[in-house]
């Protein structure tokens, strides 16, 4: 699936990933390939995504949108 991660200042990541783990306000959740459509508010924590390696971004909050195997995260970095 394709992931795009944006902060107010810049694009932090764009590329293919295998999974995404995010700190939602209702608890941590994971997004895998062909996940159902989803819109969630994010709280402070770590946005973790995996492709060939694992990458982590510490966030203050934001939101994530999943639709048709395209994931967009708009976040504020810590």
Give the secondary structure arrangement, pairings included.
Elements: E1 2-6, E2 11-16, E3 19-24, E4 27-32, E5 38-42, E6 45-50, E7 54-67, E8 70-77
Parallel strand pairs: 1-8
Antiparallel strand pairs: 1-2, 3-4, 3-6, 5-7, 6-7, 7-8
Order of helices and strands: EEEEEEEE
Q: With helices defined by DSSP (H or I, 4 residues minimum), what is the helix count? A: 0
Largest sheet: 8 strands, mixed
Instruction: Quote the beta fraction.
Output: over 45%
What does the radius of gyration come to? 11 Å
How much helix is in the residues?
under 10%
Oligomeric form: single chain
Name the overall outline. Answer: globular
Q: What's the total count of β strands?
A: 8
Secondary structural class: mainly beta
Unreliable residue runs: none
- Separation of the first and last Cα atoms: 26 Å
Written description of the protein model:
With 78 residues, the chain is an all-beta fold. It has strands spanning 2-6, 11-16, 19-24, 27-32, 38-42, 45-50, 54-67, 70-77. A hairpin with a 2-residue loop joins strand 3 (19-24) and strand 4. The chain is globular.
């Amino acid at each position: 699936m394709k992931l795009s991660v944006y902060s107010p200042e810049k694009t932090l990541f764009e590329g293919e990933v295998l999974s995404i783990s995010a700190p939602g306000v209702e608890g941590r959740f994971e997004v895998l390939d062909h996940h159902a459509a989803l819109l969630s508010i994010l709280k402070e924590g770590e946005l973790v995504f995996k492709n060939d390696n694992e990458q982590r971004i510490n966030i203050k909050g934001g939101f994530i949108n999943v639709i048709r195997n395209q994931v967009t995260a708009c976040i504020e970095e810590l």
